[in-house]
Amino acid sequence: MIKVTLFSQIISKLDSSKFKNLVTQHQTDKHQKGFTSWSHLVSMLFCQFAKSQSVRDISNGLRSATGNLNHLGVLRPPSKSTLSYQNKNRSWELFRDYYYALLKSLGQQTFGKRVNFKIKSKIFLLDATTISLCLSLFDWAKYRTKKGAVKMHTLLDYDGHLPAYVNITDGKTADNKGAYDIPLLAGSVIVADRFYNDFSLLNVWDSKEVFFVIRHKDNFTFKTIQERELPKKRHQHLLKDEIIELTGNKTKEKYPKRLRRVALWDDQNQQTIELITNNTKWSANTIGELYRARWEVEIFFRDIKQQLHIKSFVGTSENAVMIQIWTALITILILKALKAQAKYSWYLSNLVAFIRLNLFVKVDLHKWLDNPFQKPKPPPKQNHQGVLF
Fold first, then answer.
1. By Cβ atoms counted within 10 A, which residue in 10, 127, 223, 342 is the most buried?
2. Distance, CA of 308 to CA of 182 (rounded, Å)
3. SS3 category, 104
4. How many Cα neighbours within 13 Å face the side chain of 149?
């Protein structure tokens, strides 16, 4: 008989020792009065799993689980004023660093088999998404005259479909400008859309021995140096494969090396897609498939916005917003690890919905993940003695 809730079993998956080390490093429990950093983390994870709309919902929701909080490592549920104060004042960097710490352990469990790719290079998908905010409430998040926003620049690891790096900036920051700080791994490949067609940025990547596959803009000028012959048994969507050199004065100065240009036909959208890369060894079809894989980062943005709680916020300060975004990233990391462990083929949306409905139900997590629709056992047959008279 399971004596702890589903939520408690999920929280037990987290490495508390790593979190304690980070708390010591960031000094986030200094002068705290009963509401520890761990209690704060659990409260904000509850906000994500339960999709709580306010600090009152978080407080009341945890309060409704009286008697179970000791299994979560929480002494007592926070009041809404305590949670609001800590969201405003406790350093959000603690939650960011804990996400990266968990990524090294839980994130490895989400790795699956690569589809369509025989290359050994590490593949990263780069894109950014805008999270809209009400300027009258979030006056620090200036974006437009009457609109606020923050932008989440994300480098997604293709193997686990989880962010290897996230840079959260104000909404005005251009996609390419937010990409200058991303960590670079020599020998890896970065796949991105035309917003990253910044030749200064591409030159930095090339100098760090990073490959890139970028959709180029329509207005850049070049000359063809070599027309590469397409294979006879080529895929019909491949149109052109050539070596080019930039001819614009400014662009040539920013990127003086030669590039490879591949054009392919997108039958679904009835358009030609033109790509540039600094790799000359991969087949043209591999380059096209790499760009198609970029759609995974769009799916990630859809999942985190639809399934988790980052489209509205329980606090209005910049610190509170950052904490909520980073705890959302921790939540999706946990969810994808659970999904990878389960024998049942879960859709992420179904898994989120089922956990949300059963947060405080006492059921074995692993058995439930493997067989969520197990039929109850029939009651034992009862032998009734016949009536003699």
1. 127
2. 25
3. helix
4. 17
